[in-house]
Design goal:
Blueprint lengths: L3 E2 L2 E6 L19 H15 L2 H17 L2 E8 L8 H12 L2 E8 L21 H15 L6 E5 L5 H14 L3 E5 L8 H5 L8 E4 L10 E4 L1 H6 L14 E3 L8 H15 L5 H9 L12 E4 L7 H5 L6 E6 L2 E5 L2 E2 L4 H19 L2
Parallel strand pairs: 2-3, 3-4, 4-5, 5-6, 6-7, 7-8, 8-9
Antiparallel strand pairs: 1-10, 10-11, 11-12, 12-13
Helix pairs in contact: 2-3, 2-11, 4-5, 8-9
């Protein structure tokens, strides 16, 4: 029996969504995934500013750490605060003690006049916003930041932008971190990306992917269910599977439990070991996490079957590089109450903007 694991990796996060909880409802109820993007998430990222980005990252990183997640692969977008945004996120995570792999998700959905387009023609010209996003990825990586080149999704990008992102990733010897076929609006992503993807790419969701692409597939079960986009059937894919949360916290044991239940609904012969392997595949991106030590309030952490059927397992202590970053459930580098209070202040500002 053991009450310890290595640190966990959240293979796809949106730290900026930490302030979304309690946000005002859209004026009309979204009826499909595209409307959810238009009425909720695209409005939110358009409203973000420097302080909101910083404190959302601080809150998200702190909550990740106290759940036993020591590494985050983050996908960020803030069209009105692009320059320096990745360094801001990295600074917040470093203060908490969480490792982060960051990227800026480039997109052509904002044209040069600031107008929003839900779909972009593959033949469109790259927008200035997309160029600035690529420049932010380039700046961050050139200055030694740990990250990737981010792309929102193929259906919001021209072929010019997709090609430029691929070339920039190759220049820095990193992968591209991109949402792929999450909803039916992006069903043609496979055809458009087939000649571009490489083994080090992160393909997020892949719910409606119609062909094999090179790269890791990151499964986000809670988000896919919440957005009613369908089931990705990750166990049937030939790609190596990682597990993410798509911005809904970073409690990876909780995400794994949900992933297992959804998997069993699809295939009754599957076992918790399948989902546990998805968690462990994250060490290919963050090998250091394997040496981290997370202690829990439960003594069967060496058994995936125990973990899968025991809700409420919580981390009590977390050690990273020999430093105790969580003791008795509380972070040691930051004051959790101060982080929550500061984040709440920025949340109010954000929600006021969204209420207009």
């Amino acid at each position: 029996m053991s009450n310890q694991t290595s640190g966990h990796v959240c293979a796809h996060h949106h730290l900026y969504s930490s302030l979304a909880r309690g946000m005002p409802a859209s004026k009309t109820t979204p009826n499909n995934f595209l409307e959810i993007l238009q009425q909720v998430w695209w409005r939110l990222d358009n409203a973000l500013d420097e302080q909101m980005i910083y404190w959302s990252a601080m809150l998200g990183a702190t909550e990740a750490l106290i759940s036993g997640t020591t590494c985050i692969i983050d996908h960020h977008e803030s069209p009105n605060f692009i320059d320096g945004s990745l360094s801001l996120i990295a600074k917040a995570c470093e203060q908490v003690g969480v490792r982060v792999n960051a990227c800026y998700g480039v997109t052509d959905r904002w044209d040069d006049l600031g107008q929003l387009h839900s779909k972009v023609s593959p033949l469109s010209k790259m927008t200035n916003a997309a160029k600035r996003g690529l420049e932010e990825c380039d700046r961050y990586l050139s200055q030694g930041g740990r990250g990737m080149v981010g792309v929102h999704a193929a259906f919001t990008c021209s072929d010019e932008t997709l090609n430029a992102a691929s070339e920039l990733a190759a220049k820095h010897n990193v992968g591209v971190h991109i949402h792929v076929a999450e909803g039916l609006d992006d069903v043609h992503a496979g055809a458009r990306l087939e000649s571009l993807t490489r083994d080090n790419w992160l393909l997020i969701h892949a719910v409606h992917l119609d062909r094999k692409l090179s790269g890791y597939v990151v499964h986000n079960p809670r988000s896919n269910m919440n957005n009613s986009v369908g089931y990705a059937k990750p166990s049937a894919l030939k790609n190596k599977i990682l597990l993410g949360t798509d911005g809904i916290g970073a409690d990876m044991l909780e995400e794994a439990r949900l992933a297992f239940v959804r998997l069993r609904e699809y295939d009754i012969e599957q076992t918790p070991s399948t989902v546990w392997s998805w968690l462990e595949n994250g060490y290919e991106i963050f090998p250091e996490a394997k040496s981290d030590k997370v202690t829990y309030n439960y003594d069967h952490l060496d058994s995936p079957w125990h973990v899968a059927f025991t809700p409420g397992v919580r981390a009590t202590d977390v050690e990273v590089n020999g430093e105790k970053l969580v003791v008795a459930g509380l972070p040691t580098r930051v004051d959790i109450q101060e982080v929550r209070a500061k984040a709440a202040e920025q949340s109010i500002r954000l929600h006021q903007r969204l209420a207009i």
